[in-house]
Design brief:
four-stranded antiparallel sheet; mainly beta; 20 strands; 279 residues
Length: 279
């Protein structure tokens, strides 16, 4: 997204995730997503789908990565166009809401409204949509009671888990938990779809993260800045939790000796911009 609100896309287009139709199966050049006629204020990229919010608060989706799951969930009924489109398609069910931010997991979608509500749709294989249903085709409002009755101010996504921060600074996590990516011990239950690995569809607070000023999610690990300290937790096979080991980190742990300013996570690596320490 550039200053004028125009969206540019490049990379794989095998599932239409660039939003330019059948123009190419991939592109190394930046392509304009011309179907988005209004200025865009938020964009998000999942594994094989994409999302955008326009200046008027409308949410658009494109990319066919969720189609097969939607088809199984809806059969014999047809799949809605926004789950099977290679150009931006309006997402219904949000007409009375003023959306201002979208976020995406590997196969799920999140919309945060100006009123502080979260709407979730897509795959809930690991309980990330707080439902026992394996797939939600339409945006479904998350009950505020699950987040202590508070409005949501910010939200982040891993591939299969969600992290949300409320107006009181509290941080809640839910979804897949088998690598420690929730920063807490999830209830000892299998996910509703029956795949291996623990998960929980019930959000719960991670108290050590209260007041976090920044959070970043990788595929299955996370970083957070709380005060002037850097914390990490989750999948650590490649050492991306920064503790010198390759053992998964179940609860947020302090990475000592750093003064973090900015943080970011890739699927299997982490980065932090830190201030120089003075004596």
């Amino acid at each position: 997204m550039i200053d004028c609100g125009q969206v540019l896309a490049c990379g794989s287009n095998a599932f239409g995730q660039l939003g330019v139709g059948q123009a190419a199966s991939s592109s190394a050049d930046l392509l304009v997503v011309e179907s988005l006629k209004e200025p865009v204020v938020s964009v998000a990229a999942g594994l094989r789908h994409s999302l955008a919010v326009t200046d008027s608060g409308c949410v658009y989706q494109w990319g066919t990565g969720l189609f097969s799951q939607a088809k199984r969930a809806l059969s014999p009924h047809p799949v809605p166009s926004y789950l099977n489109s290679k150009v931006p398609s309006l997402v219904p069910g949000l007409g009375c809401e003023t959306s201002y931010k979208v976020s995406a997991g590997s196969a799920h979608c999140v919309c945060l409204t100006g009123e502080g509500d979260l709407f979730l749709w897509g795959s809930s294989k690991y309980g990330q949509l707080t439902t026992t249903e394996p797939f939600l085709c339409t945006p479904t409002r998350l009950k505020r009671s699950l987040l202590g009755g508070e409005k949501v101010l910010r939200v982040w996504n891993g591939w299969t888990h969600i992290v949300a921060q409320t107006e009181g600074g509290r941080v809640f996590t839910w979804g897949r938990a088998n690598y420690g990516q929730l920063g807490r011990t999830a209830s000892a239950c299998q996910n509703p779809a029956g795949s291996d690995g623990a998960s929980t569809s019930i959000p719960a607070e991670v108290k050590v993260l209260s007041g976090a000023t920044q959070i970043a999610c990788g595929s299955e690990h996370n970083l957070a800045i709380v005060g002037s300290q850097l914390f990490s937790w989750g999948w650590n096979e490649h050492g991306m939790c920064g503790d010198g080991s390759q053992t998964d980190v179940i609860q947020p742990q302090l990475i000592s000796g750093l003064s973090p300013l900015l943080i970011g996570c890739g699927a299997g690596h982490s980065m932090a911009v830190c201030a120089n320490k003075t004596d």
